[in-house]
Specification:
The protein is of the alpha/beta class and about 270 residues long. It has 10 helices and 7 strands. The protein has helices at about 5-10, 50-65, 75-85, 100-110, 125-130, 155-165, 175-180, 215-230, 230-245, 255-270; strands at about 70-75, 90-95, 115-120, 135-145, 170, 190-195, 210. A 7-stranded mixed sheet has the order 1-7-6-5-4-2-3. Helix 3 crosses helix 8. The N and C termini lie far apart (about 50 Å).
């Protein structure tokens, strides 16, 4: 039975099996898991590989996008970086000419160095996309609506074009979210999200996901998913160390919420984030 997006957001996958009967999904923060015996596993061994909370997020996002599987990441760029591991040196991609700047910087600095070329064209015109195809083209990457100019592409028409030429269609669905647009139902093979924007919605969490109906892509990407989650861990570690050096006398840091909020809002933007 298919549920509405509102129900999925509230109920999740409904596959939770919490041993203590928690109605809401607990947040499992542990790194490792006890084994019931030698050579036996509960299905969870180390949180970089799998974690019950992350699994529930992935199942819920897959349901929202009507995909078969999803992978969760710490940031949108972590998801796109992992997605690029599908491709090999010599591969060519066609992409929307109006893209989130971080995606362009990744391709211009890292992907280009790795021998992967990307041509950015006006994907709101199917003819322009067709003209950019090469024998070595492996995928078409759409951001629709695009960021920041809100250009719109015909997902279904470009999906047909991609598949006729043996290419994947990848869609960044960040701006509309699965509530308003489900690219997989229109023929896309892979959907990526920066969950920091509309999926999360409160401007206080970094997250992202990759969703697919083609099982071989998630299997490949699963091997890299844990590696790219290190970004958020390293940031938190660096911030904790900096905090202790600058304010060693403030042992009640976590208890003084008002002071903590003031320091984060007033100090970080000027001295760290710039």
């Amino acid at each position: 039975m298919a549920f509405a997006a509102e129900t999925i957001c509230v109920q999740g996958s409904n596959e939770r099996k919490d041993p203590f009967g928690a109605i809401s999904m607990p947040i499992y923060q542990n790194a490792a898991y006890a084994h019931p015996g030698l050579g036996k596993s509960t299905g969870y061994d180390y949180s970089r590989c799998s974690n019950p909370t992350r699994d529930e997020v992935q199942k819920t996002v897959a349901l929202l996008e009507q995909g078969t599987e999803a992978l969760a990441f710490s940031t949108g760029m972590a998801a796109i970086t992992a997605m690029m591991e599908i491709f090999s040196p010599g591969d060519h991609l066609i992409a929307t000419d109006d893209l989130y700047g971080g995606t362009l910087r990744l391709w211009n600095t890292i992907s280009h160095k790795n021998g992967i070329s990307v041509d950015c064209v006006d994907t709101s015109n199917v003819g322009t996309v067709k003209a950019a195809l090469r024998p070595e083209t492996k995928a078409i990457y759409l951001e629709t609506p695009s960021n920041p100019m809100m250009k719109v592409a015909d997902i279904q028409a470009i999906a047909d074009l991609a598949h006729e030429n043996g290419c994947l269609l990848i869609v960044d669905n960040t701006f509309l979210s699965p509530y308003f647009q489900k690219p997989l139902t229109l023929g896309a093979d892979i959907v990526v999200h920066s969950g920091t924007k509309y999926l999360e919605g409160h401007n206080d969490t970094l997250s992202s996901s990759i969703i697919s109906t083609r099982l071989q892509e998630p299997v490949c990407l699963r091997l890299t998913a844990g590696c790219y989650s290190a970004v958020s861990r390293h940031w938190q570690s660096a911030w904790n160390s900096t905090r202790r050096m600058l304010w060693p006398s403030h042992t009640g840091w976590n208890r003084d919420r008002k002071w903590k909020k003031s320091i984060i809002s007033d100090w970080i933007p000027d001295r760290i984030r710039s």
